[in-house]
């Protein structure tokens, strides 16, 4: 009898592995086949004006991504933040921009999005120059965790979406981290699909990162502010998230200031936003 039970369990496990992808594809197809709710359209027009700048085919693709994203991801309100369709659609629209034209999954490691009314405190440890570990608590607009969570401040989410040309968007930033971490490491080198692509990616990213670090040091010494947000000089992971924000919100300027960087991001995201 124990052997029979083990055999049955093994067969059930095999059946699950075979059937799971088909079930997921069916469920997502069903979500995308539903009509996009009129109220969600009104939310996009009111809260995410950048959607209207997309070509018509990408607008349609984005709406289908939003439908799947909202069917699969849980939203949790924190510190009294209510979770409404306005919150869910506004966040999903910005997160799904990074999925346009790209094969793959809907942030497979992500289970839930936590939303605070405003900036929230995050405790972390930092090692100073003397090697002493210090505990700090910083206010943050967003966080991306490898444990399957993205945390966002709702007021900064709205502010980032309201101006699609300022190069600052906390949702795009944190979901770029989610893409980055799909390789198992959050290091500024997301899954490029082909091993031979990493050499060019590394060369371009490292050069631009080094330039930003130099420009940030010069700014601290009284020089002009660099084109890219100095926060990107924190480390390569933050650099990737920062340049992703600029790629989607200031693509023409990025293509002029850093043409090689723009080309690498355009190849990765399979988009050419400078032409929109």
TrEMBL record:
GO terms for cellular component: cytosol. One of its GO terms (molecular function) is aminopeptidase activity. CDD domains: Peptidase_M90_mtfA (cd20169). Signal peptide: none annotated. This is Zinc-dependent peptidase. It comes from Aquabacterium commune. The lineage of its organism: Bacteria, Pseudomonadati, Pseudomonadota, Betaproteobacteria, Burkholderiales.
């Amino acid at each position: 009898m124990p052997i029979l039970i083990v055999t049955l369990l093994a067969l059930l496990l095999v059946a699950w592995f075979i059937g799971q992808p088909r079930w997921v594809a069916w469920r997502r197809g069903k979500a995308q086949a539903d009509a996009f709710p009129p109220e969600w359209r009104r939310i996009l027009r009111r809260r995410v004006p950048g959607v209207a700048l997309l070509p018509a085919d990408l607008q349609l693709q984005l709406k289908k991504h939003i439908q799947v994203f909202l069917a699969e991801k849980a939203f949790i309100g924190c510190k009294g933040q209510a979770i409404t369709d306005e919150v869910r659609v506004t966040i999903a629209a910005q997160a799904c921009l990074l999925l346009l034209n790209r094969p793959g999954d809907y942030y497979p490691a992500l289970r839930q999005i936590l939303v605070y009314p405003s900036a929230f405190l995050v405790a972390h440890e930092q090692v100073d120059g003397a090697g002493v570990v210090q505990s700090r608590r910083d206010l943050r607009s967003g966080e991306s965790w490898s444990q399957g969570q993205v945390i966002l401040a709702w007021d900064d989410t709205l502010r980032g979406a309201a101006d699609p040309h300022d190069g600052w968007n906390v949702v795009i930033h944190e979901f770029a981290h989610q893409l980055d971490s799909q390789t198992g490491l959050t290091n500024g080198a997301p899954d490029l699909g082909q091993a031979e692509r990493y050499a060019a990616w590394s060369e371009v990213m490292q050069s631009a990162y080094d330039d930003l670090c130099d420009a940030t040091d010069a700014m601290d010494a009284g020089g002009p502010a660099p084109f890219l947000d100095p926060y990107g000089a924190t480390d390569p992971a933050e650099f990737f998230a920062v340049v992703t924000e600029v790629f989607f919100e200031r693509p023409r300027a990025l293509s002029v200031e850093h043409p090689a960087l723009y080309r690498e991001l355009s190849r990765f995201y399979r988009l050419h936003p400078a032409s929109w």
